[in-house]
Amino acid sequence: MSGVTWQEYEILRATMDNYPGLRMTYLKGTLELFMPSPEQETSKTTIARLIELSSLEKNIRLYGCGSTTYRKKAKERGLEPDESYCFGRVKEFPDFAIEVIITSGTIDKLEVYSGLGVPEVWFWQNEQFRLYSLQDGKYEEVTRSQFLPDLDLDLLATYIKMPDQYDAIVEFRNAIQEK
What we know:
- This protein is α+β, with helices and mostly antiparallel strands and 179 residues long.
- It has a single domain (37-178), classed as Alpha-Beta Complex (tt1808, chain A), CATH 3.90.1570.
- It has helices at 6-16, 38-57, 109-116, 153-160, 165-178, and strands at 23-27, 30-34, 62-64, 70-72, 77-79, 83-87, 96-100, 120-125, 128-135, 138-142.
- A hairpin with a 4-residue loop joins strand 4 and strand 5 (77-79).
- Helix 2 (38-57) runs parallel beside helix 5 and helix 4 (153-160) runs antiparallel to helix 5.
- It is globular.
- This is Uma2 family endonuclease.
- GO terms for molecular function: endonuclease activity.
- Residues 6-153 form the Putative restriction endonuclease domain.
């Protein structure tokens, strides 16, 4: 939808909070609504469990914020990531967010995230990661996370692709403990 004011977005967001799973992305008058598919939810949960396991194994203080609604009126931006995390402590905005892309919408999510000041965004699409780091107000694609630089993304991807989530978690734990 286009031509949606910030006030209308906030009213819709408040009204629709009763619909579990409904996601909204808002960027300067354009609003996108969508419901995640079972495939998207399974992938984002597997990714989250693997990242959280890795941080525990490496004794990294990682705080999961899930799909919290993040918004900034002054920048006319708002969204709910598939997953989001803070390091060290919980903050107003996450240190990094994860988006699982099954079908693309029309809104450029990196533009939304840049207005929110989220330092890093991970996209999982076509069974691979693409990471973006915010540099001087713009995202640049990077090959390693600034927050989890030792995390082997190719190894992580291998376990996300496994058909059984439980087995993936157990095998990933074994693999990282061997390193």
